[in-house]
Amino acid sequence: MATALGEEELDNEDYYSLLNVRREASSEELKAAYRRLCMLYHPDKHRDPELKSQAERLFNLVHQAYEVLSDPQTRAIYDIYGKRGLEMEGWEGTISVGVDATDLFDRYDEEYEDVSGSGFPQIEINKMHISQSIEAPLTATDTAILSGSLSTQNGNGGGSINFALRRVTSAKGWGELEFGAGDLQGPLFGLKLFRNLTPRCFVTTNCALQFSSRGIRPGLTTVLARNLDKNTVGYLQWRWGIQSAMNTSIVRDTKTSHFTVALQLGIPHSFALISYQHKFQDDDQTRVKGSLKAGFFGTVVEYGAERKISRHSVLGAAVSVGVPQGVSLKVKLNRASQTYFFPIHLTDQLLPSAVFYATVGPLIIYFAMHRLIIKPYLRAQKEKELEKQRESTATDILQKKQEAEAAVRLMQESVRRIIEAEESRMGLIIVNAWYGKFVNDKSKKSEKVKVIDVTVPLQCLVKDSKLILTEASKAGLPGFYDPCVGEEKSLRVLYQFRGVLHQVTVPDSEALRIPKQSHRIDTDG
């Protein structure tokens, strides 16, 4: 789903974090967590009007989370699109502008003639393509998709419009009906099906009927995929129709690299492809890539890089060198859900000068713009956004703080009983717990420590002398709130188990299980 440009939107509630369950939690785990929180927050257990009002709100929030996650269809939508996916819509699109710059390099001594009379090389836009689509959830299981495209090349153009209706049939699959029409082609009827066969294998089938002046053109594409290991997926694709082909590929994606190898046998295109992308673990998410593709059409070598230049924007460039295609420079900008693509054809020949300028030119332009324009602009924008975020979230933080304090008051009686039970069997007692930003680096002593006391909320989550927190931000747990929005946070717990003190500190989004993860404290010191 697309989001508004230049806007950072976050769901206020993480349902999994609220219920303190894994994203893979079974229905039994969801039900157990739901019942426990309902007993804690049930409004009838509180006589004080203020506490009763807070308990009612928390009770309704827990009920809402359970309603979404307990239904396989709404849970599938929530897992894919998040909370907004149940109620919002968004645009996605691509704008491609093809540029013919061969006049810069392909000059013929006798045949070349300067038509313009200006003495400068002619650079022309010879093709353009614009496509946009919007998805709008109709119900918890149905989504309508409207898309359209316009294309023009060398003075000739056309367009098409498509409407599709997608239904999530279960947590394992969905189906989609598509209807389309265009001025260059007749009506189109299509059917897409997706199904998880096993936890590690899925299949996608796309059937289409294209009506034209030449008759009916049927088409069928089937993709079978299987997870070979944690980071590797294998694909088998069969395509039957106007351009029949069989394709097999293996894709391996890790935190530091992306590797693809593919082989296709088909009419009219058969080829072999190998590509590699290295991901640098930096704030700009820099990636460098290279690929080699060889087939009946010739051979193409492509190399390039991409880098994040703002929160929502990624800029990339690639140089394509091939026979008989020549040399091209491809510039791409991803801005939120919009993609802007500029393929610039430099020469039909393999000219070293074209390869050199296509490689060095974009680098010089990028570093100059980044230093003189982008970096100062982003610095100013960041300061402005931080100030705006502080102002806009001040009220929300205050509300979250009040809700957390109310939740802690609601937990007091339950915590008292839990502590009595744990003390009787020398079990797990939370002595102190803090959540927020800790400053351990001596060079950062000037930074302010921003933590909140979460001893009571954590003790309330202790069950059978165990405390288990899932891989999610702790800010969504009952009795918690975010004391330092936008900054790195940790959870530090000092606890007693079997009469011995222990301490553990974990990053905000990491799972925690105690008493297994612990460090003994020297109580004599």
Automatic annotation (TrEMBL):
Which Pfam families does its entry note? DnaJ (PF00226), DnaJ-like_C11_C (PF11875), DNAJC11_beta-barrel (PF22774)
| Transmembrane helix recorded as keyword | yes
User: Which subcellular locations apply to this protein?
Assistant: Mitochondrion outer membrane
What sequence ranges are listed for the domain J?
14-82
Q: Which PROSITE patterns match?
A: DNAJ_1, DNAJ_2
Q: Primary place of residence? A: mitochondrion
One of this protein's GO BP terms? cristae formation
Task: Give the matching PANTHER family.
Answer: DNAJ HOMOLOG SUBFAMILY C MEMBER 11 (PTHR44157:SF1)
What is the official name of this protein in its record? DnaJ homolog subfamily C member 11
Q: Which gene encodes it?
A: DNAJC11
